[in-house]
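Structure (tokenized):
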């Protein structure tokens, strides 16, 4: 007989750090009836509650395996939570904690907490208890005041010495200025060796400033870090706010992943243009992960962020973390992906490339627009937001799949540009990147041979290659396959290519959602599934989630293409579950929300 589903706390401890922050350390075991050896990544989410709001954080899987009879799964997890950072105000503890388990295709919430928990009594008055219903851990939700470090009194002699030292340093700084300027100039043009942190910077002006900063930092024994930059930008922002009022009809679009208006922002802007009167539009669009280092872009950001009633972003936008937004400015995230697949944001805490729990990333959004109800929970966790700020309005750029005129126009344009596609079977290879971000992104080109796949597919096939925009290296294509293999990584929109695609080959890309709307069969070439799961992970167990056949070798991939074995029957149920809201009206719904916010701004002006 299977054991009942239960969670046992093996260790729970509160500790207060030197800076006054509170750390909650948890270790717990879950017994889940119905052991399934195919489940590789059972996922537990910690859900903290207070005053009707909740925040989510993932727990770390330590080990998983069957019990002695192979009838139940025994799962061990751990978590270290900076309690002060769970909620945005950072000064109050949560009142309760519940646990959510995703095991295979099943989700259990809240998990029953066993009464035989081992609770280590903390030094602080935040005693945890298991209530009679066994549904949650309860905490004493009293204020957690900050405990500033007591500064040591400086004796008069020490104060005098420090004052004299500062005066001499200031005089020396002025005297050495010509030398530092010359040194920075020569380093910027690579005429002399630059400091290690300066060499990797692009642009002579930026290297000049960075070298100057390094020299003065060494002289003054200080480091101009992120917090210093944040203070400076905040002061500049407040100055802009003082002189420039919010313009009640201004809508701005920010992005560091595109040079022109495209994707979700383009569709929302087109819908807003139909309003009467239409808002005033402003843009800060640049395909540059280092946008926060460009003085011109920073100044434009400060001005637009201070004067726009509504601001849209479609990706993590670093500059938002450096300033405290003024009242009257609304910030909306138009996340670029459809659905929730790979973990992002705070779902990656503790993983390579993931943020610190104390990070300001994403938490400042007033609203985040997601594709449907199934994406609300994952993105609430990813953005560190309560669920009521996640709006399932649909994905604007997916509206094209319900526009017959757009579909016909796109096909015609593609056939005119690439006439070799017409009358052929088109296979689209569109994998995601490896690495932790734009600077380290790559795809292992040696793991896929376009020519070998095309040979397996047959002579009436054309192969389109569409690598992730972060990946800079491209396949070297054999000249004899000219016209049969096209690398469109830098040219066409991925969604547009789906209008002429007969088979999609991908791995962990969220384009599976768009492909399912088109009813396209899919193959998942997941040769590094275990490694990718360990470093990036997913919101759902990969195997039961994906709408197609999974292969892990090139030979198996070619065989599936040759025989037509795609497990295409999985596409329709997947589309119904994750894209049921898609109806071609997402952009109009976002425009209606924007109009409502602009009206509220006008009424409060």
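Design, position by position:
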């Amino acid at each position: 007989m299977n054991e009942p589903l239960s969670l046992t706390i093996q260790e729970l401890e509160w500790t207060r750090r030197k800076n006054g922050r509170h750390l909650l350390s948890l270790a717990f075991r879950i017994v889940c009836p119905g052991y399934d050896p195919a489940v590789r990544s059972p996922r537990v989410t910690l859900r903290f509650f207070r005053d009707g709001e909740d925040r989510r954080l993932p727990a770390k899987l330590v080990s998983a395996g069957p019990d002695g009879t192979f009838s139940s799964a025994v799962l061990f997890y751990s978590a270290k939570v900076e309690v002060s950072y769970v909620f945005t105000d950072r000064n109050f503890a949560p009142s309760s904690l519940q646990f959510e388990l995703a095991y295979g295709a099943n989700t259990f919430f809240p998990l029953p907490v066993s009464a035989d928990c081992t609770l280590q009594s903390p030094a602080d008055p935040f005693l945890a208890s298991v209530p009679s219903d066994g549904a949650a851990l309860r905490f004493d939700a009293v204020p957690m005041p900050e405990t500033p470090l007591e500064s040591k009194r400086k004796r008069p002699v020490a104060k005098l010495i420090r004052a004299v030292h500062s005066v001499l340093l200031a005089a020396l700084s002025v005297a050495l200025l010509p030398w530092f300027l010359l040194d920075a100039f020569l380093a910027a043009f690579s005429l002399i060796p630059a400091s290690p942190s300066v060499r990797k910077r692009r642009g002579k002006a930026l290297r000049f400033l960075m070298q100057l900063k390094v020299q003065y930092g060494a002289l003054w024994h200080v480091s101009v870090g992120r917090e210093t930059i944040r203070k400076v930008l905040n002061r500049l922002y407040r100055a802009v706010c003082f002189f420039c009022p919010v313009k009640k009809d201004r809508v701005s679009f920010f992005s560091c992943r595109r040079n022109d208006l495209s994707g979700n922002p383009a569709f929302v802007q087109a819908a807003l243009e139909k309003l009467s009167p239409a808002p005033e539009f402003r843009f800060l669009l640049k395909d540059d992960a280092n946008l926060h280092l460009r003085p011109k872009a920073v100044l434009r950001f400060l001005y637009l962020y201070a004067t726009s009633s509504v601001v849209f972003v479609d990706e993590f936008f670093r500059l938002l973390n450096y300033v405290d937004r003024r009242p009257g400015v609304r910030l909306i995230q138009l996340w670029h992906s459809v659905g929730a697949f790979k973990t992002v944001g705070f779902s990656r805490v503790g993983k390579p490339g993931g943020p610190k729990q104390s990070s300001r990333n994403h938490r400042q959004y007033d609203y985040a627009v997601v594709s449907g109800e199934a994406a609300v929970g994952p993105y609430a966790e990813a953005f560190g937001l309560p669920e009521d700020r996640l709006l399932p309005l649909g994905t604007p750029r997916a509206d094209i799949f319900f526009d017959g005129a757009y579909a016909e126009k796109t096909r015609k344009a593609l056939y005119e540009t690439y006439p070799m596609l017409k009358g052929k079977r088109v296979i689209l290879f569109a994998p995601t990147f490896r690495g932790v971000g734009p600077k380290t992104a790559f795809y292992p080109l040696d793991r896929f041979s376009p020519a070998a796949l095309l040979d397996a597919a047959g002579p009436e096939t054309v192969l389109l290659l569409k690598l992730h925009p972060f990946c800079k290296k491209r396949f070297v294509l054999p000249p004899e396959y000219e016209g049969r293999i096209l690398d469109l990584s830098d040219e066409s929109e991925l969604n547009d290519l789906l209008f002429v695609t007969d088979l999609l080959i991908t791995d962990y890309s969220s384009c599976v959602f768009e492909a399912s709307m088109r009813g396209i069969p899919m193959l998942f070439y997941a040769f590094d599934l275990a490694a990718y799961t360990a470093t990036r992970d997913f919101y759902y167990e990969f195997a039961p989630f994906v709408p197609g056949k999974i292969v892990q070798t090139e030979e198996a991939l070619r065989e599936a293409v040759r025989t037509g074995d795609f497990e295409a029957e999985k596409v329709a149920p997947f589309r119904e579950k994750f894209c049921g809201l898609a109806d071609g009206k997402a952009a109009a719904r976002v425009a209606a929300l924007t109009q409502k916010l602009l009206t509220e701004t006008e009424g409060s002006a």
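Reviewer-requested clarification: The first helix runs from residue 156 to 188. The domain at 6-138 is CATH 2.60.40.10 (Immunoglobulin-like).
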